[in-house]
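Posting this for the archive.
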Amino acid sequence: MTHVNDPAVIERLMRTKGRWAIVGLSNNEWRSAYDVALYVRDRMGMEIIPVNLKGEDVHGETGYKTLGEIPADKHPLDVVDCFVNSSHVGAVIDQAIDAGAKAVWLQLGVNDEAAVERAKAAGLDVVVNTCPAREGWHYGL
């Protein structure tokens, strides 16, 4: 079954201040995650947590290698924003479920229907195939 985004969920996630773990955010300025993370932090007013293979800090924020490495004092994770290849996003969604995240946001072109269904079954809000920086104009952000 193909997921259909709920505009009310998108608006709530974008307007409610919270903590966004951004998986795939590195210091590579050529990747879209680099600029979108600044939008999420500076325009939307969210706390961001970089998650990348090296665990490197990005935009002055402490980075981690996996969602599981994020310390308890950085929980709950309100949104896990996924800038990873679709073939890897299922594992990220499973980590998000295990970490008690409230929502997963799959960026443009990222999808895994089975993993999306697992997230929904676990009670997470799900957004697929869009970007907060592209949605923001709808909400004056």
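The chain has a mean pLDDT of 96. DSSP finds five helices and five strands in the chain.
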